[in-house]
Amino acid sequence: MLDTNVWVSALLFGGQPARLVQLARDGQVQLCMSQALLSELADVLRYPKFQSRLQRIGTTPESLLINISRLASFGTKVVSIDVPELRDLDDKIVLEAAIAAQAVAIVSGDDDLLVLKSVADIPILTVKAFLACYFPDW
Q: Domain 4-134: which CATH class?
């Protein structure tokens, strides 16, 4: 399960987050997504601060969202959780989607999520930590 910030980095800036998306394209990982996360990502990709970057790489938010919809697995199961130590309640959708999807890991660059370390026995890792743990030779 990729957090919205990882998707944005992967799609607009490349680097290690883009490696995760490439692993999914290569069939080595299955990326999970929820409608709530896709909606959040759609909103973020439309922020004015990203418009020049989108133009520079020759794409649109709509095109990126279509590609994600084809690449990611969407679950229909919905769970609601209570995480008292969650500092940013907006991050709850990431945790709920990961639990519903029975994700192996949550990958995020968000300190409010990373500080939790795990939720429902699902580790919360940085991109670097995920790649080091699951794809050390990649």
A: alpha beta
Return mean pLDDT, the chain. Answer: 95
- Reduce the secondary structure of the chain to three states and give it as a string: CECHHHHHHHHHCCHHHHHHHHHHHCCCCCCEECHHHHHHHHHHHCCHHHHHHHHHHCCCHHHHHHHHHHHCEECCCCCCCCCCCCCCHHHHHHHHHHHHHCCCCEECCCHHHHCCCEECCEEEECHHHHHHHHCCCC
Q: Which residues pair with 106 in a beta bridge?
A: 124
**Its pTM surpasses 0.85:** yes
The structural domains of the chain, with segments of one domain joined by +, span 4-134
User: Is the distance from CB of 22 to CB of 32 less than 8 angstroms?
Assistant: no
Distance, CA of 82 to CA of 84 (rounded, Å): 6
